[in-house]
């Protein structure tokens, strides 16, 4: 009998996509980070969640 788990090759998100975006949400702030496929940090930012502070970050 073949061990099926031995046939599975793990694949990371970075091996499938050029960029990986992580988002971390909290009551007071939301943060994001963008990594390239090599794991190099390209950008990160933290924003307050209050309506007045968020108005300065609105897009569109």
Describe this structure in words.
This protein has helices at 13-16, 51-55, and strands at residues 19-25, 29-36, 41-48. By secondary structure, the chain is an alpha+beta fold. It has a 3-stranded antiparallel beta sheet with strand order 1-2-3. A hairpin with a 3-residue loop joins strand 1 and strand 2 (29-36).
In the sheet with the most strands, the strands line up as 1-2-3
Q: How much beta, percentage-wise?
A: 35-45%
Structural class: alpha+beta
Topology as a string of helices (H) and strands (E): HEEEH
Biggest β-sheet strands, sense, barrel: 3 strands, antiparallel
Number of helices: 2
Tell how many strands the DSSP assignment holds. 3
Shape: elongated
Helix content: 10-25%
Average pLDDT: 83
Low-confidence stretches: none
CA radius of gyration is 18 Å
Distance between the termini: 58 Å
Summarize the structure.
Helix content is about 15%, strand content about 40%. It has two helices and three strands, in the order H-E-E-E-H. The radius of gyration is 18 Å and the shape is elongated.
